[in-house]
Specification:
165 residues; mainly alpha; 5 helices; 75% helix; elongated; transmembrane; transmembrane helix; membrane
């Protein structure tokens, strides 16, 4: 595993001594959990990008000047549904990523290892870094709100299509 701090990584001998108390099963479990946590994190950020691609197509259909009333309604409803599904998936992936981070942190504490899977605030404090206010905003919540806004745009398209029909 790479060192997340700006310091040089410890040499192999000191790393082997640090990890010596853990059993092979614990090391394997730690590696599997770390890989799964990384997978949740990576997928969590792919969801908004893919969703926005679908949303842009559906909203162009829903709001297009050449779109028929049924096409606007279907595009708007699909946009709303994709928005809900994307927000739910984003939040579920975030929850799973956090749970795995907590499990990894417990293993690190139990074995006296350097805590790599602690919170961003704790990592910043450990190196004397002052976090700015903007960092306190949770990115996944901002993205969830943005995806929800696209869902509202879809509902608005449906309402406009029905009212102006």
């Amino acid at each position: 595993m790479g060192n997340i701090d700006s310091e040089a990584a410890p040499d192999e001998n000191s790393q082997a001594q640090e990890l010596a108390p853990a059993s092979p099963a614990t090391l394997t479990q730690y590696q599997v959990l770390a890989a799964r946590r990384q997978s949740f994190d990576t997928t969590m950020w792919q969801v908004p990008a893919l969703s926005l691609t679908a949303q842009s197509f559906l909203l162009s259909l829903a709001y297009g000047a050449q779109s028929s009333k049924p096409a606007s309604i279907v595009g708007g409803l699909l946009s709303f549904m994709i928005s809900l599904m994307s927000v739910q998936l984003l939040l579920r992936l975030r929850k799973n990523e956090v749970l795995d981070s907590i499990l990894l942190q417990r293993i690190e504490r139990e074995h006296g290892w350097t805590e790599l899977f602690t919170s961003g605030a704790a990592r910043a404090r450990s190196i004397g870094y002052s976090r700015r206010r903007v960092i306190h905003l949770r990115s996944y919540l901002i993205w969830a709100a943005g995806l929800a806004a696209f869902g509202l745009a879809g509902v608005t398209a449906v309402i406009i299509a029905i009212v102006t029909g």
